[in-house]
């Protein structure tokens, strides 16, 4: 499978002599040295790929360069150096006219602050991208209405933006992006202006839509919990550089440095980890033969704890063919939670809580 989006050695420098600043960065200069000379390095040597149908999350604190990086992906900002390829085409080499066509038809953007037109109805707002493309009115309204329905806004087509809640307004922005049927969605902190409960609801909405539409999405956030909930892969940025790229489990369990590790300290591991991440894979046998509950590699951590609490031995993890691929001892669950004191209430079985420690054997058949 070829990558849908590829960023290679991207640099963006604002200010004096940007090309010379890139060369200095390549030779080891840091941002502070450049700033003293009147240049600001927003993005430094950023490379990554995004596969079709993948949600790729870029996360970092304010000033890390994530939004600047996003704007280089659709040509709103021209890289100082490096290239962006979309479906094999080098966007950095396109003429302004061709780039506008790509942005109008193949790449849509969902902004943080809704960006709805107050004098247009909900339907007209959702259809705006299609109007820019020159799609006839009847067709664009039908497509916009379908996108609004997908986003849970059927029946609100004739309403005005100020009649909607913040979450509903953001759904209109998402529907506008979906209506164009663009191959790539760029989402710049799209949910960060929402209240926590509405924000989680929008995350649910996006994940639900993704199961059906399988869009390729680049999602920007400063919230690691949001990144881990949404991202198939995550890139962590610091001071303009991508310091680690990987799955949520990679970031959480195998941080590249102390900076990444510091982010993961407050993450709710039970919402991220699965059986495959915590199991002991050094096992022998073809299938579990204990007549009790088992888990699959993708069983969520919380569900795994519940299964463990009902058993007196490690949980057997079976693949789709029923083959034993690992076991999860209770103490391993406690270790991943990182809180020994919570073990009795979270992962302990009734027998353990009564003082009778069950055996640690999983009966298998070779």
How are the SSEs placed, and which strands pair?
Elements: E1 5-15, H1 18-26, H2 31-36, E2 39-50, E3 55-59, H3 66-73, E4 81-86, E5 89-90, H4 96-105, E6 107-110, H5 122-126, H6 128-133, H7 137-150, H8 166-179, E7 184-188, H9 196-213, E8 216-221, H10 224-230, E9 233-238, E10 241-246, H11 248-253, H12 258-264, H13 275-278, E11 287-288, H14 301-309, E12 315-318, E13 324-328, H15 330-337, H16 343-346, H17 350-353, E14 364-365
Parallel strand pairs: 3-8, 3-9, 6-7, 7-8
Antiparallel strand pairs: 1-2, 1-4, 4-5, 9-10, 11-14, 12-13
Protein name: Glycine/betaine ABC transporter ATP-binding protein
Organism: Streptomyces resistomycificus
Biased composition (Basic and acidic residues): 350-366
